[in-house]
Amino acid sequence: MTTISVTGHMDLTDESVPLVRAELDKVLAAYEPSGLVGVSCIAKGSDSLFAEAVLTVGGRLVGVIPSQDYRQAKVKPGHAETFDRLVDAVDEVLVMPHETANRQAYEAAHAVLMERAADRLVAVWNGQPPTGQGGGTAERGAAGT
């Protein structure tokens, strides 16, 4: 079995989405689908693209939800349908014990991603510093290396 976690930007441009998806497809093509487990927070952008790519190749998906209120508080209407579809498709859902989606909840979720990344962590990063309260891909990637 191969376990791969993802971390990455939420705000991908329309031009970058197909490029990121193509790279994710290349990464996943190197693994046997029946033994592939993808771990994702299923956020908008890189996380959801990765989750969709894992499911497309026939792998199993583990969803890590940062807090009990994450769906209601943080999932925007434009991502809600995708989020719900992917949550319905996961083999396992881990909801962090935080009531509210805040920095601590995101850090706990990303700690699980790092713990579960037994074989590989895929990071989608545009080289820019973080823009939100979640810590940013640069911080998570640095913490995991």
Could you give a quick summary of the protein structure above?
InterPro entries: YspA (IPR010697). The protein is an alpha/beta fold and 145 residues long. The protein contains 6 helices and 5 strands; from the N terminus they run E-H-E-H-E-H-H-E-H-E-H.
Structure description:
With 145 residues, the protein is of the alpha/beta class. It has one domain: 3-Layer(aba) Sandwich (Rossmann fold). It has 6 helices and 5 strands, in the order βαβαβααβαβα. A 5-stranded parallel sheet has the order 4-3-2-1-5, with helices on both faces. β2, α2 and β3 form a beta-alpha-beta unit. α1 crosses α2 and α2 packs parallel to α4.
- Given helix and strand content, the structural type is alpha/beta
The number of helical segments is: 6
Content of β-strand: 15-25%
What is the CA-based Rg, rounded? 14 Å
Number of strands: 5
What is the CATH class name? Alpha Beta
List low-pLDDT spans. 133-145
Biggest β-sheet description:
5 strands, parallel
Helical fraction: 40-55%
CATH architecture: 3-Layer(aba) Sandwich
* SSE pattern, N- to C-terminal: EHEHEHHEHEH
CATH topology grouping: Rossmann fold
Strand order of the largest sheet: 4-3-2-1-5
Shape: globular
Mean of residue pLDDT values: 89
**What distance separates the N and C termini?**
22 Å
Total domain units: 1
